[in-house]
Amino acid sequence: MKTAWIFPGQGSQALGMIGDLAESALGQERLEIAERILGWSVLEKCQGDEETLSRTLYTQPCLFVVESILADLLQEKGHFPDLVAGHSLGEYSALYAARVFNFETGLHLVQNRSLLMDAAEGGKMAALMKFDRTSLETVVNQTENVVIANDNSAEQVVISGTPEAVDLVLGQVKVKRVMPLKVSGAFHSPLMENAAIQFQQILELVNFRSAKVPVISNVNPSQPITDAEELKSYLIQQMTSSVRWREIMLKLPDVGVEKAIEVGPGKVLTGLIKRTAPIELENISQLADIYKGSGDVKLQVSLIGVS
Length: 307
Known about the structure:
This protein has about 300 residues and is α/β, with parallel strands linked by helices. The chain is built from 13 helices and 9 strands. Strands 7-2-1-8-9 form a 5-stranded parallel β-sheet, sandwiched between helices. Helix 12 (about 270-275) links the parallel strand 8 (about 260-265) and strand 9 (about 280-285). The radius of gyration is 18 Å and the shape is globular.
């Protein structure tokens, strides 16, 4: 059975998500390395308070650490993906699982990314659920300083831009539900260009290896790729480009994927796929899932993250 591992991004974090991973030898080793790199404890942040964990500065490194530990434990047990993909931040975990870079390099990249995004100001993001897509795309295309930042599914998107532009779109499009997101920056939009330029300088100093398994990129999901330079190019573009998750989900069965395993906290991505693509789904979020097998999973609908 051809299997894809998919990794969630910001918005899937939850207190206690480190769980029993901290009890494994690998988990303890990675947490010690992470504390040396970050200067703070992932374990403490995951067991602290929700407001702190939800801050971009902490959310992104914590998610990367948790997801990379899970990926390595799965591989230690002899499980390997045929393809990987990740939602925004989750793409870093996907690239790690495909051995494009090592754990330390990945965490350094995520740390710098989180610092730049946490410092972003002057933007607004809002999640929209159940809307007329043609109408929304027309209004967005006609309005300056706003874009569809996350195309999560047929019925869920996130728009991003200046507060004035986002409000202008919301005033013209009929939407069943709107949820403003608690972020200060216009993530995944051209307004992140300054942060993207700074991050590009960091990325260009890092050597990427060709992926051991194909990766479907957020920026261009037309075909799975393995080329190191192409993967780096798309990662450079990711901060200012839309997350095309709806297209990634549709691509999975097209390339022969029969099963998708969400590796990380929450069940947001499998919930979206359940309503989009006819493939088998599984969730791996704890050590116990790896050793017992997760069996039938009860899916929950949740608002997907923004980064």
